[in-house]
Amino acid sequence: MADFLLYALVAGLALAVVAGPLGAFVVWRRMAYFGDTLSHAALLGVALGFALDVSPTLAVTVGCLLLAVLLVTLQQRQPLASDTLLGILAPSTLALGLVVLSFMHDVRIDLMAYLFGDLLAINPTDLYWIVGGSTLVLALLGCLWRPLLAATVHEELARVEGLPVASLRLGLMLLIAIVIAVAMKIVGVLLITSLLIIPAAAAQRHARSPEQMALGASALGVLAVCLGLALSWFQDTPAGPSIVVSAALLFLCSLAWPRRA
């Protein structure tokens, strides 16, 4: 197997494994729009990374983490509804990123690669970021699984039992921010959230427990990555969108597959 294809496969599988359980929480908590906002802000992080001459991946990671904290703060202090606030920040950060990039005449940037991913162009440094970030998120998610699940199922009861609900919510948002930052190279800022939501939504229909849904979402994500890379390799289609299309087809298959009694 060619090195670039091996790098792409390992990176895609690492992201799919962690996106499964994290995507389950995104579906349960109906946080899809939050993920979209963070993914749009990733392009602003890329622009600032080039402007400050630092690693774009590092800039995107820090930018997504800071935006997650800002969103939590604004949601607590502003009278605006959460979806309205997210609707303001999502296009604003994306547009600001595009404007900042337009001023960098001496920097050549493949904008399509950042918008839709460039999985087959992953190098060893990108792979370290993706695998390291995915491993960190998966480990933290494993430690926080029970309290996060309790706060998701019944937030008021979890608060009565003494669980730090606000801190858990912020922690979940920060984990989503890390995954979005490392996933940018794989499926691009416009398609990141789909890799979190589609496998989890497909697994939800047939799962009998939260753990089954998380594992099923990871398995479907892994399958979507393999199918998408195969499609890209044999038909010369863009890798990131091919993975998302594969995930969407798996979701349609899950709808057609009869549920167990």
Automatic annotation (TrEMBL):
Keyword Cell membrane: yes
Main localization category: membrane
NCBIfam families, sorted: PRK09543.1
InterPro entries: ABC_BtuC-like (IPR037294), ABC_TroCD (IPR001626)
Transmembrane feature ranges: 6-28, 40-73, 85-107, 127-148, 168-201, 213-233, 239-257
Protein's UniProt name: High-affinity zinc uptake system membrane protein ZnuB
Subcellular location: Cell membrane
Source species: Pseudomonas typographi
Domain of life according to the entry: Bacteria
Role summary: Involved in the high-affinity zinc uptake transport system.
